[in-house]
């Protein structure tokens, strides 16, 4: 096993020839894990085989150590391994970097056991015959010196190592972006294998992927807006053993840096005068506002979300709270005057055919067409002859407080388990004794609300 360099390829070939001379026919199989090793045993047609491993797992090492199994670890300058993969095996810069970095990390613990014969290119690479003899003794293979010499001569076309000057020249000629990617990820191991301790490892963005597409490198700006998803993943490189602290450096494009985000806009407005916020979606931005601008506190928050005893995205949770329950919990615990307009109330005010017929103007016609679609959905999903206009109830309550009856109660947001995540627990009857932190909507004057909504939509022309 060893780094994917000329030395390990030479060792594989030498060990195979030595075993053939001593024991008979042999297979060389690639295996990094116990599972791969077991599969190789099943497929092998010979009595003897050699395991060639480039990224050996901890499980494989544990078994080797437990059974005192001897093995060879071939170490080289990681840069030579990278050069070998690019020039001889045709890998691109990213794939070669991943392969060598993963191999380096995997091999660190393999050099520390008594059963390991550790070969280093800068030392054993100068004496092929002596190295082959050392390998034969390590595995107790009965091969005559003359036969070992013959094996070495037969493998003369396989170079054990590259001259340091050749490696330096090749690397200096490598294109700058490619060299930076590889050097950043491998330099720490170059230091380690030179006996100077493990250095810093830096994984550039080119080693990662966008979203969940392994064909799309994260080498361009990423749009972080939209649905909740994995923005970046990777880089599929094993870390060395031990505890690690990762520093993630994120940059913003010029376009993003110049954008005035919602929380900055709201904070600036709050400095000018008191405001009532009416959030009608997930409360992420409101929670960020409270966290980043603790002094910019709205006078009141009237939110559409939650419920006393209903859910729409799950049996327990309403969508807006479920999307970001941690943000909702921060808002409810903020001490600000909060009113929750939940599903229990919005479901009582259904915009039906009678109300659609009263709509006037072009805007009214557009709303009528929209409600035809939503009406079909609500009829099929809930059996209703109409559609709730959830967000409008929250806005209407700010304009006409008399439209919604509220009760001041304690509300707790469930940020935990899968089934109940996002639920708003309301101590409606005071049995839990929670301190009141919210005006919870408990009823709505549906006729008056719908009359107001028709009037305002029609007034838009």
Give the topology.
Elements (H helix, E strand, L loop, with lengths): L5 H17 L3 E5 L3 H10 L4 E5 L5 H9 L4 E5 L2 H10 L5 H15 L8 E5 H4 L3 H11 L6 H10 L9 H10 L2 H18 L15 E2 L21 E2 L20 H4 L4 H11 L3 E2 L6 H9 L7 E5 L14 H5 L1 H8 L4 E5 L1 H4 L3 E2 L1 H5 L3 H22 L4 E2 L1 H10 L4 E6 L1 E3 L10 E3 L11 E7 L1 H13 L3
Parallel strand pairs: 1-2, 3-4, 7-8, 8-9, 9-15
Antiparallel strand pairs: 5-6, 10-11, 12-15, 13-14
Task: Give an overview of the whole structure.
- With about 450 residues, this protein is an alpha/beta fold.
- Among the domains are: about 5-160, P-loop containing nucleotide triphosphate hydrolases (Rossmann fold), CATH 3.40.50; about 260-350 and about 390-460, Inosine-uridine Nucleoside N-ribohydrolase, Chain A, CATH 3.90.245.
- Helix content is about 45%, strand content about 15%.
- The protein has 20 helices and 15 strands.
- Helix 2 links the parallel strand 1 (about 25-30) and strand 2 (about 50).
- The longest helix is centred in the last third of the chain and has 22 residues, at about 360-380.
- The radius of gyration is 34 Å and the shape is elongated.
- The model has no long low-confidence stretch (mean pLDDT about 90).
């Amino acid at each position: 096993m060893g780094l994917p360099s000329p030395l390990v390829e030479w060792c594989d070939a030498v060990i195979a020839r030595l075993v053939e001379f001593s024991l008979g026919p042999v297979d060389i199989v690639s295996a990094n894990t116990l599972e791969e090793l077991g599969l190789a045993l099943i497929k092998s047609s010979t009595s003897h085989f050699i395991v060639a491993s480039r990224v050996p797992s901890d499980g494989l090492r544990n078994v080797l150590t437990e059974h005192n199994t001897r093995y060879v670890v071939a170490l080289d300058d990681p840069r030579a391994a990278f050069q070998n993969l690019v020039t001889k095996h045709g890998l691109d810069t990213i794939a070669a970097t991943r392969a060598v970095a993963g191999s380096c990390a995997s091999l660190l613990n393999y050099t520390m056991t008594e059963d390991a014969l550790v070969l280093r290119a800068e030392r054993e690479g100068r004496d092929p015959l002596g190295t082959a003899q050392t390998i034969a003794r390590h595995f107790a293979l009965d091969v005559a010196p003359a036969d070992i010499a013959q094996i070495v001569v037969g493998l003369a076309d396989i170079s054990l190592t590259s001259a340091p000057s050749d490696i330096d020249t090749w690397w200096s000629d490598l294109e700058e972006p490619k060299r930076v990617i590889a050097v950043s990820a491998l330099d720490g191991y170059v230091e380690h294998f030179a006996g100077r301790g493990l250095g810093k490892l830096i994984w550039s963005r080119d080693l990662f992927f966008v979203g969940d597409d392994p064909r799309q490198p994260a080498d361009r700006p990423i749009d972080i807006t939209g649905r909740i998803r994995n923005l970046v993943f990777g880089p599929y490189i094993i870390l060395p053993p031990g505890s690690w602290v990762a520093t993630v450096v994120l940059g913003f494009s010029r376009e993003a840096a110049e954008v005035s985000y919602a929380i900055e806009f709201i904070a600036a407005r709050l400095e000018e005068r008191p405001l009532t916020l009416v959030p009608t979606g997930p409360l992420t931005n409101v929670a960020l506002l409270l966290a980043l601008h603790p002094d910019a506190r709205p006078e009141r928050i009237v939110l559409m979300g939650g419920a006393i005893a209903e859910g729409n995205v799950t049996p327990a949770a309403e969508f807006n709270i479920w999307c970001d329950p941690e943000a909702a919990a921060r808002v409810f615990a903020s001490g600000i005057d909060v009113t929750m307009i939940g599903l229990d109330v919005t479901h009582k005010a259904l915009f039906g055919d009678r109300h659609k017929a009263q709509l006037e103007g072009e805007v009214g016609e557009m709303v009528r067409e929209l409600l035809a679609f939503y009406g079909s959905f609500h009829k099929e999903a809930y059996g209703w002859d109409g559609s709730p206009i959830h967000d409008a109830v929250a806005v209407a309550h700010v304009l006409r407080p008399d439209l919604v009856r509220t009760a001041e109660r304690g509300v707790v947001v469930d940020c935990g388990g899968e089934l109940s995540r996002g639920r708003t627990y309301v101590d409606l009857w005071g049995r839990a004794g929670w301190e009141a932190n919210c005006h919870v909507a408990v009823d709505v004057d549906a006729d008056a609300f719908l009359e107001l909504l028709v009037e305002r939509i029609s007034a838009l022309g």
